[in-house]
């Protein structure tokens, strides 16, 4: 029987181990040798499942751990000084959460489950010490940080350089790429987030998101039933998402 801690975490003897996890090929232990895997596995706490809408950590909490999504999905919500909510990230299985807290030693936002979800909790001081001795783990940690920076740059480009249609098309293609990385179909998957959340993330009104989804369906680029998405023409959707390069937008603004 697993031993439960007050914070919902469990010891790594809960019957799930990195060696047998289906996400090991895309998670932090990716580059570890088998003899190092047990050492990494020993620092992990596997938390009890979270239900949809449950908060994993809160903005302003002291930074002491990072998380890897095992199942389900999460959104990161940041509150500004006026109390307005802004979704800054969506996290899927195998992805690392909480790295942004390293700089200021506090959690930068709320991590909220979008559906029934489970995570691996990794105390950062132990991860940092282990990474000092295991170059493969250190390099994979650096790659995860680089991916996070790339996602931030991608979001900035979406918000500053693309029309509403292009933002939505780019967002769907990015989800497809990430689901494919997880071993799922890049053409058929379920949207874990609501249209309201998509609009918040992309800086669009709910009505705009619904209208754009309808337009993509009318053009036979996608088919959407509830949250079940089918990308019918990936190449055409990509061309649609890149129809107005950022440079063109910048030049148009200068001319105006």
From TrEMBL:
Gene3D superfamilies: Jelly Rolls (2.60.120.10), Winged helix-like DNA-binding domain superfamily/Winged helix DNA-binding domain (1.10.10.10)
Record carries keyword Chaperone: no
Gene Ontology terms: cellular component: cytosol
Transcription regulation as UniProt keyword: yes
Molecular-function GO terms, alphabetical: DNA binding; DNA-binding transcription factor activity
Assigned keywords, A-Z: DNA-binding, Transcription, Transcription regulation
CDD domains documented for this protein: CAP_ED (cd00038), HTH_CRP (cd00092)
Stated name of the protein: Fumarate/nitrate reduction transcriptional regulator Fnr
Organism: Kushneria phosphatilytica
């Amino acid at each position: 029987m697993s031993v439960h801690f007050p914070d919902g975490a469990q010891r790594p003897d809960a019957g799930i181990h990195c060696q047998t996890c289906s996400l090991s090929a895309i998670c932090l232990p990716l580059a570890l040798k088998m003899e190092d895997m047990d050492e990494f596995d020993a620092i992990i706490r596997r938390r009890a499942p979270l239900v949809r809408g449950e908060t994993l950590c809160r903005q302003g909490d002291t930074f002491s751990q990072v998380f890897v999504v095992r199942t389900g999905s999460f959104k990161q919500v940041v509150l500004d000084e006026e109390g307005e909510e802004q979704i800054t990230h969506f996290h899927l299985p195998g992805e690392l959460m909480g790295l942004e807290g390293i700089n200021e030693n506090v959690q930068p936002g709320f991590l909220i489950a979008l559906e029934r979800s489970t995570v691996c909790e990794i105390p950062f001081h132990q991860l940092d010490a282990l990474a000092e001795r295991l170059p493969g783990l250190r390099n994979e940690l650096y790659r995860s940080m680089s991916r996070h920076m790339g996602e931030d740059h991608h979001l900035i480009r979406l918000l500053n350089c693309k029309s509403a249609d292009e933002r939505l098309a780019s967002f769907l293609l990015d989800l497809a790429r990430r689901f494919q990385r997880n071993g799922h179909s890049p053409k058929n998957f379920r949207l874990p987030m609501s249209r309201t959340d998509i609009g918040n993330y992309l800086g669009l009104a709910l009505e705009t998101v619904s209208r754009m989804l309808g337009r993509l369906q009318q053009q036979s680029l996608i088919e959407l039933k509830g949250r079940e998405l089918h990308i019918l023409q990936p190449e055409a959707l990509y061309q649609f998402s890149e129809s107005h390069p950022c440079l063109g937008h910048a030049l148009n603004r200068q001319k105006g």
